[in-house]
Design goal:
With 187 residues, this protein is α+β, with helices and mostly antiparallel strands. The chain folds into two domains: 71 residues, Arc Repressor Mutant, subunit A (Orthogonal Bundle); 77 residues, Arc Repressor Mutant, subunit A, CATH 1.10.10.10. Helices cover 55% and strands 14% of the residues. The strands form two sheets. A three-stranded antiparallel sheet has the order 1-3-2. It has a three-stranded antiparallel sheet with strand order 4-6-5. A hairpin with a 7-residue loop joins strand 5 and strand 6. It is globular and about 60 Å long.
């Protein structure tokens, strides 16, 4: 296979999968060395960004997906005649934040943090695909643990959870540490 065929194969598999696919799975499907595949994917990502195209390849938590560029969201929605998604409620955003910053978590953990029953919100976020089950805890009752999904990362335009903004306590703590460090340097 020549280089053009490799690129065409990668594009075809990413397009057909419709969901994020791991490097290992992509490598197996294309019968290609992972190192070579990784290099080709990096080249494709860069080329798609530089060219005036409607699609891009995104890396979501180590998995790759072919997506439309965000600026084409409006025309795509109109073409698909999709009804406008209702924005997430404040309660749903709070629940997502608890999960994203502490995952994996159970419903009871979320309820302890928020102080209110969150079952219906968790179920709604699962239905929307923003969170997913992360297994069951090995404790009595074996509660389900939840984590954010790849759809969550895509929706909030993040590559992974390290891109979450710091929590206010973390910012205050860092400011205090910085000022203490400055005092030590001055003294």
């Amino acid at each position: 296979m020549d280089e053009k065929q490799y690129y065409a194969g990668i594009e075809a598999v990413l397009f057909a999968s419709g969901e994020p696919i791991s490097l290992e799975r992509l490598s197996d499907a294309l019968e290609m060395d992972e190192m070579l595949l990784s290099t080709l994917l990096s080249n494709m990502i860069q080329r798609y960004q530089q060219e005036d195209r409607g699609i891009e390849i995104v890396c979501l938590d180590g998995m790759y997906q072919l997506c439309t560029k965000p600026q084409w969201q409006g025309p795509i929605r109109r073409a698909m005649e999709m009804k406008k998604n209702t924005p997430l409620s404040q309660a749903a955003m709070e629940t997502l934040a608890v999960i994203a910053y502490n995952e994996p978590v159970t419903k009871s953990f979320i309820e302890q943090v928020r102080g209110v029953d969150s079952s219906s919100i968790v179920n709604s976020l699962v239905e929307k695909g923003l969170i997913e089950e992360a297994g069951r805890l090995e404790v009595p009752g074996r509660p389900i643990a939840y984590r954010t999904s790849v759809h969550f990362l895509r929706s909030f335009q993040m590559k992974d959870l390290s891109e979450l903004p710091p929590l206010p306590e973390q910012e205050n703590q860092k400011s205090e540490e910085d000022s203490q460090e400055a005092k030590r340097e001055d003294g």
